[in-house]
Amino acid sequence: MRVEGRLAPEVNVPEEVGIADIPNQMLKKVLQRGLTFNLLVVAEKGTGAKTLISSIYNLPHFPPLKEQVNDLYEYTTDIQSNEILLTLNVLIYRGRSEKDLHTLVIDRNLQYNKSNVGIKRERVEDRRIHASLFLISPLSFRSDDIAMLKALSGLANTITVITKRDMFTGTELDSYKARINQELTAGLIHLYKSPRLSLALPLATIASTSWVRVKDQTVRGREYRWGVLSAEDPESSDLALLTSLLVTDSFVDLKKSTSHYYRKWKESTSADPIRPKLGQQEKDLLQEVERTITQRLHERLQQLQQTEKLIDQAMHSLNAPLG
Q: Where is the Septin-type G domain (predicted)?
C-alpha cells in the first residue's frame, strides 16, 4: 500500500473487526460473564434427585445448601468446561402442593418482570425457571402428580423422568409408561418437546455417583450380585439422553422457551401489579415509543440470534459432560 509515494507499513489485524464480528464480540462478552441455568426438580424423598443431578452434571460432590424455605431447597454451583462457565442453580421441591409450585414459578417471573419495567432498568440475575424435572416414583403415579404437573407444565419447560429404572423389567416399564401417558393425555398436560432430540417421555433413568468397570471401560453404574449395570448404557437408562437434553443439544432452546412461557404468563395476567395505571395520553405516548424502537429491536434480535447459534455450537461441541 502506498501513501504519498511512500510504502506504508502493513497492518496486521489479529481478529475480525466491524459489524460482521458483532456476534463473536457478543459471544465473548457472554462467555466472560458466564451462563446461568435454573433447574427445578420436583421430587419426593427417596427418588434419587441429588444422585440424578450429580450424574447429569458430573459433579464429584453435590453442592452445599444455599437456602431452604419450607419444602424448597436451593443449591448453587459453578461448573467450568473449556471456556464456558456455567452457574447452575438447582431447586429441589419436596412438597406435594400444586399451589406452592405455581407460586414458586410466578414469584420468579414477578422478580424478573420488576427488574425489566420502567425507564431505569436493573441488570439482575435471571431467576426464571429454565427447566423443570418432574421425578416420578417407580412405585406409583398418583392423582396429585397429575395436579402438580398440570400446574407446572403451563408455566415452564417440564420433563418427566421415572427414576430407579432398574426396578422394572422391560415389559413392566412399557406398561407403566403407557399408563402415565394415558393419564397425562386425559389431563391435557403438554410436556417439553426438543427440536433436536426425539424424546419418548417419560424418560427412565438409572443414576449413580459410583464408577464401575464394564467391558474394559470405567462408567457410572451400579454393581449387583448378578453383575454390573451401566447408567450410561442407552439400552438400560436414559441418563445420556437427559444429559444431552439439559447440557448440550437443547440448552439454548430451553432458555428461549422460558421466554415464551414468560410472555404467555404476562399476556394472561389481567392486571400487571408492577406497572402503574396509565391515562390515555400516556398510553398513546408509550405506543409511539414502542413503534419507534421496534426497528432497532429487530436489528438487535438478529444479532442475538447469531449469538445464540454460536453459544449453541459452543455447548454442543463439548466432548464430555460438564465437570
A: 33-266
Mean pLDDT value across the chain: 83
Buried b (16+ CB within 10 A) or exposed e, 251-267: bbbbbbbbeebbeebee
Contact call for residues 236 and 177 (beta carbons, < 8 A) = no
Based on the domain organization, do 205 and 306 belong to the same domain? Answer: no
* 205 and 283 fall within a common domain: no
Residues 275-284 pLDDT 10s: 555 566 666 6
Task: Identify whether the C-beta of residue 321 lies closer than 8 Å to the C-beta of residue 58.
Answer: yes
209 and 189 within one domain? yes
Query: How much helix, strand and coil, in percent to the nearest 5, is found in the chain?
Result: 45, 20, 35
Edge-to-edge strands, sheet with 84-93: 65-69, 72-81, 84-93, 35-42, 131-136, 158-162, 203-204
Provide the domain limits for residue 183: 29-269
3-state DSSP call for residue 51?
helix
* Mean pLDDT confidence for 284-311: 69
Q: CA separation (Å) from 119 to 124, 265, 290?
A: 15, 22, 13
Angle between the N-to-C axes of helices 98-115 and 251-268, in degrees from 0 to 180, rounded to the nearest 10: 90
Rg (CA), the chain: 24
